[in-house]
Specification:
This protein is of the alpha/beta class. It contains 29 helices and 28 strands. It starts with 20 loop residues before the first helix and ends with a strand.
């Protein structure tokens, strides 16, 4: 039988006065990127620290009072605790120069993500999306950007991966002990737990709110495990991406709708909301509802300030990765909600469709996010182009290259991912400011002055730690499966070239590309003079059977005699293992099928630790690759036949390993130091660390998206939404009159052959505005080269100036431009609606081309 307690309470450790600073240190995830804090916990007890899963709250709970009293007599430990406490206090008190002066603690950004990866001890994340969100929040803290995170509290989190004897992945879930996490339940003024509700199928699902401090920024987690809820509703937030499609839409309702309501209940009203993928797209709907209630605006009026104040980031490169819901499921869960806002099925469900008039088209949360946002971006330059192609049907009047999706390339939070060994070198060479202000490229150039053996010795220490852990974990896994000691073998050598491949397993990432020619790979791995070893790690989604099969294939290869001691796959992939892998590998391997990798931040983490990158030209590497700093697999080509592409890329990979990577690593001077390799390491770090970090990324969001969004939101809310009403009325007028707008003539003074660097070209455009005024129209000259098909490839846009109106009512506009590089060039004329309050002219769908 199960014995239920009559009462629950939490017992906090009684800390001696000398160790009291530990309580505050454990309560803030600042410790997760403070090497001094981690060293402090290890000083207390390395074994307990590892046994706690690197969870400082749980760690402190394991100490008996007498042992804490004994530790309080350790003056070195007490001094260490005081130092970390002082460092944290100074960090929390800092007020960095604002990156967006019009944002403040009152007018802030709310960043919504279905997962946040902040520490392995709080497994409320699945993979890269969560890692990116966690690093975004940490950099917002470092930079003093007023931003709060919103997500869900998953009582079982994400699964622990276990590999069976046959290599098949199995998932194990365990409850997260809330009392052993640095979570504080948000309470109302009377001290009772604060809750909000979300309507789901005619019932109110109550949500508790938990706060997690991440440096200077809070993360609020919504929890459906509330006693007043039904058993089924209490389980909605049990697992990250858990359950069926119905659970998914309920989770997304809780994140988007519940998140906005939780902020409002706490007295917090963001000026900008950032959707990290489409999972939180419903936040736009609830913000519109609130604004309608507060101001009396209609939906069409309220959508204008809300969309202007919303940022949408897509991480998806294929349509199959988008959440799609049957229309009847949307009606079931949201019908009563949106009908209360005056919307019928077509009006609302159409916001999630490419064709609003197709009743059979499923509803896309990503499309809803695109429609309800004023700034949209992919996560690398190449991914922008992929996203524009993926969503071009949403803007049918625009060429693919002009679909309004920008690019802000992802980055990493350097203090989280850089090892203690390399961090100390950076402190001395670059200066300690690299931790909070890493974008100073000139400072990173000072790495070239660091003695080569110092860099190399630090890297060797990292590799040795990784190999020690990998050996231990490999033996442990083999013993659990009941395998013989010989199967675990003497896997891995701490002094051999070590190549890492660790990421979410998905078919497009091609984890088995390396094994296309096993015999050739065997010769590379077992070269007596220049051996190579590989470490694999990563999870497959519980319902992704093809990805599980890929893991199984890697396991089977690792057991072949020619690979057994040179190739391992490690289970239980999490943040801690990921950190050791990117810190300890010599080379980081990435083999996605181009162009399906949106960004790929694991390579950024590896190069920041001195690894060299070996990758297909996809994601961030397509814009970052420089000869001599790493290697590019293939040539950036994309074959329509994936099998042909696999053949081409695998051959390129083998050739690079044989002819370049392996010889470069083993090219040593008389002292055994690979000086050319170390020079590559230094140049790679200096080139990539100041660019591919989340401080640069967050600053881009602040300057390109958040700041202008906040300004537009404030303007459109003036006088109870007067300007929003005026803008909605103007839009209605423009839509009615748009068909009458005509481009009557386009003239220029360009000769048939234009000299590069010669006189500029003047273009004159004549437009009949119909019932509109000249100020209602924005005329643009789009210039660029001409491709082999005779089509314009845009590379610049010049706004045309208004010259005047003739007696015939024709408006005249002019623009001047200089053609760029040699070859065929041209221009096109487009006309857009123009209004100073129109944050995004493309949201209207109105574009006229000459």
């Amino acid at each position: 039988m199960r014995l239920h307690p009559s009462r629950l309470f939490t017992v906090e450790p009684s800390l001696p006065a000398a160790l009291e600073p530990l309580r505050a240190i454990a309560a803030n995830l600042y410790w997760a990127w403070s090497p001094d804090a981690v060293a402090l916990f290890e000083h207390m007890s390395r074994d307990r620290w590892h046994a706690s899963g690197h969870n400082p709250v749980k760690f402190l709970q394991t100490f008996p009072l007498d042992e804490l009293e004994r530790l309080a007599q350790d003056q070195n430990l007490v001094t260490q605790a005081e130092t970390v406490s002082t460092e944290m206090g100074e960090y929390l008190a800092q007020k960095p120069e604002p990156v967006a002066p019009n944002l403040s603690e009152r007018d802030f950004v709310a960043y919504f993500s279905l997962e946040f990866a902040l520490a392995a001890s709080l497994p409320v994340y699945s993979g890269g999306l969560g890692v990116l969100a966690g690093d975004h929040l940490k950099s917002a803290s470092d930079m003093g950007l007023p931003l709060v995170g919103i997500s869900l509290l998953y009582r079982e989190g994400y699964f622990q991966q276990v590999l069976a004897q046959d290599g098949w992945q199995h998932e194990e879930y365990s409850d997260i002990d809330i009392a052993a996490q640095p979570l504080v339940q948000v309470r109302d003024d009377s001290g009772a737990p604060l809750t909000v509700s979300v309507p789901i199928e005619g019932r109110d699902v109550r949500l508790a709110i938990w706060r997690l401090d991440v440096g200077r920024r809070p993360l609020f987690l919504l929890d459906s495990d509330v006693e007043s809820n039904s058993e089924g509703d209490r389980a909605i937030c049990n697992r990250v991406y858990g359950g069926d499609i119905e659970t998914r839409i309920q989770q997304e309702m809780i994140l988007g709708i519940g998140g906005i309501r939780a902020l409002k209940a706490m007295g917090l009203q963001p000026v900008v909301c950032h959707m990290n993928e489409g999972h939180s797209a419903l936040l736009g709907l609830d913000r519109i509802r609130i604004l309608m209630e507060e101001t009396g605006l209609t939906f069409d009026e309220a959508v204008l300030p809300i969309s202007a104040a919303t940022v949408f980031t897509t991480h998806t490169a294929v349509a199959a990765g988008i959440d799609l819901f049957p229309p009847e499921l949307i009606q079931k869960h949201l019908g009563a909600y949106y009908s209360g806002m005056g919307l019928d099925d077509r009006a609302f469900i159409g916001l999630g469709r490419s064709n609003p008039d197709d009743p059979h088209e499923p509803f896309s949360m990503a499309l809803l996010g695109l429609h309800l946002s004023g700034f949209r971006n992919g996560v690398s330059k190449l991914h922008r182009s992929v996203s524009q192609q993926l969503w071009e049907g949403t803007w049918p009047n625009l060429p693919q290259e002009q679909v309004p999706i920008e690019s802000i390339t992802n980055g990493i939070h350097l203090p989280t991912w850089v090892s203690h060994d390399m961090g100390e070198i950076y402190d001395r060479a670059v200066g300690p400011q690299w931790r909070q202000q890493p974008c100073d490229a000139a400072a990173w150039q000072r790495l070239h002055d660091v003695p080569s053996d110092e860099i190399w010795n630090a890297h060797i220490a990292q590799r040795h730690r990784l190999i020690t852990r990998a050996r231990h974990q490999n033996r442990e896994s083999a013993a659990r499966r009941g395998a013989s000691g010989s199967e675990a073998g003497g896997a891995l050598d701490p002094d051999v070239l070590t190549i890492g491949f660790a990421r979410r397993f998905a078919s497009y990432k091609r984890a088995t590309l390396l094994f296309r020619d096993p015999q050739r790979l065997g010769r590379i791995l077992n070269n007596a003079a220049r051996p190579v070893q590989f470490i694999f790690a990563g999870k497959a989604h519980p319902r992704d059977e093809p990805a599980k099969q890929l893991i199984r294939e890697v396991v089977e290869h690792s057991r072949q005699p020619e690979f057994r001691d040179r190739l391992v796959i490690l289970e239980r992939y999490d943040l801690d293992l990921a950190a050791e892998l990117v810190q300890g590998c010599d080379v980081w391997l990435n083999t996605p099928l181009r162009p399906l990798e949106a960004s790929g931040t694991s390579g950024m983490k590896a190069v920041a630790n001195g690894a060299l990158h070996l990758s297909v030209l996809d994601g961030w590497w397509a814009e970052a690759y420089q000869p001599g700093l790493g290697w590019a697999i293939g040539s950036g080509r994309t074959d329509e036949d994936p099998d042909v592409q696999d053949i081409f890329d695998s051959e390129s990979l083998y050739q690079l390993l044989e002819a370049e990577v392996v010889p470069a690593f083993y090219d040593r001077d008389p002292d055994g130091i690979p000086r050319r390799w170390i020079d590559r390491m230094k140049r790679s770090i200096a080139a990539y660390a100041p660019v591919f970090n989340t401080n640069r990324m967050v600053a881009e969001y602040a300057q390109r998206a958040y700041s202008s969004a906040a300004t537009s939101f404030a303007n459109l809310r003036e006088d109870g939404g007067r300007r929003a009403r005026d803008l909605a009325a103007w839009l209605s007028h423009v839509r009615e009159g748009w068909q009458a707008v005509k481009i009557c003539a386009v003239e220029d003074d360009a000769p048939p052959i234009v000299a590069a660097g010669g006189p500029p070209v003047t273009v004159t455009v004549q437009i009949h505005p119909g019932n509109l005024t000249p100020s209602d129209l924005r005329v643009e000259v789009v210039t660029g080269g001409i491709d082999a098909n005779g089509d314009l490839v845009p590379n610049a846009m010049i706004a045309a100036g208004f010259l005047g109106v003739g007696e015939d009512g024709i408006c005249r506009y002019t623009a001047v431009f200089r053609p760029g590089a040699g070859g065929r060039a041209g221009y096109a004329i487009r006309v857009l609606p123009n209004n100073p309050d129109l944050h995004d002219p493309f949201m209207t769908g109105l574009v006229l081309w000459a």
